[in-house]
Design a protein that fits this description.
- A hairpin with a 2-residue loop joins β9 and β10.
- This protein is mostly beta strands.
- The strands form 5 sheets. A 6-stranded antiparallel β-sheet has the order 13-14-19-20-17-16, with no helix packed on it.
- The chain has 2 domains: 127 residues, Immunoglobulin-like (Sandwich); 112 residues, Immunoglobulin-like.
- This is SusE domain-containing protein.
- InterPro entries: SusE.
Length: 284
């Protein structure tokens, strides 16, 4: 009788141990195909006055992701990558456009021209002819990437509208176009209107409608804003991302400020590019 009880106890223990084991149902990617890309033309026409017209149409096939649970029901993300010839989609000029779910993308002249000039920062004035490489990358999240075939396209972008509205745009049709530095990173401090002694030394030189430059002695540290009307904060420019040495900005009465140089007192050249929405600061 004792042996029967011991056997029953052992059997019960094995059942309990088996029932406590964690059952894992892992899902694995079994297969997928590289999308096949087709484009409407390899010679893309970009001309002022045709901004609303179609410039380039891309179509690609579904990568048909297959998981152990069946065909994927996840949303697939498609990233159109455009790079300069020879960049191999890794150069500092590469630009990307993300398309969710759809299997096509049509660029208007205005959209593609603006992307090439303001996002990829290609030289557009004077106009240059570029050979560009195009492909599509399919993915689910950050995984399961599949790469399409590549195309080369030729085009000559023209100067698109500036990324950031330049000074004077709404003030006498560019006739003024003035720009000053204001803040405790400058000798003037935050006084606005500027102190009389600094109205000239804190004023930028307009190199073109979209490019401004100022060489000025700065104390180091602090912060500053850029204003286009002496005494008016509402048409100011402030940094969006970056460091004291460079970054991006926008026109808005907001923070953060442009940070003053962390390298200390000295003479600096500040260059502000409204076409690209970027700025740079160099100690001289």
């Amino acid at each position: 009788m004792k042996k029967i009880i011991q056997s029953f106890t052992l059997f019960t223990g094995l059942l309990l141990a088996a029932s406590c084991e964690k059952v894992e149902n892992k899902i694995y990617l079994e297969s997928g195909k590289d999308p096949v890309l087709t484009i409407s033309t390899t010679n893309v026409s970009l001309e002022p006055g045709n901004e609303a017209k179609e410039a380039l149409r891309l179509n690609w096939t579904n990568p048909d992701y297959m998981f152990t649970t069946g065909v994927s029901s996840h949303d697939v993300t498609y990233t159109i990558q455009i790079d300069v010839e020879g960049g191999k989609f890794a150069s500092d000029k590469k630009g990307e456009v993300v398309v969710a779910k759809e299997l096509s993308k049509t660029f208007t002249v205005a959209e593609l021209n603006g992307f090439l000039g303001n996002t990829m920062k290609l030289q557009t004035e004077p106009r240059r002819s570029y050979v560009l490489e195009v492909r599509v990358v399919a993915s689910i999240g950050a995984a399961a990437k599949r790469y399409s075939n590549e195309f080369k396209i030729t085009t000559s972008p023209f100067n698109p509208p500036p990324k950031v509205e330049p000074p004077g745009t709404l003030i006498n049709n560019y006739n003024d176009g003035e720009l000053w530095i204001v803040g405790d990173a400058s000798p003037n401090g935050w006084a606005n209107p500027l102190q009389a002694a600094y109205k000239t030394s804190h004023k930028f030189t307009r190199k073109s409608k979209t490019l401004y430059e100022l060489t000025i002695a700065l104390p180091g540290g602090g912060g500053y804003k850029l204003i286009q009307q002496d005494g008016n904060w509402d048409t100011q420019y402030h940094m969006t991302v970056g460091t004291w040495a460079g970054g991006e900005f926008e026109k808005k009465n907001a923070d953060p400020t442009f940070p003053g140089p962390s390298t200390g007192a000295g003479t600096y050249t500040i260059t502000v590019n409204f076409q690209l929405g970027t700025y740079s600061v160099v100690k001289i």
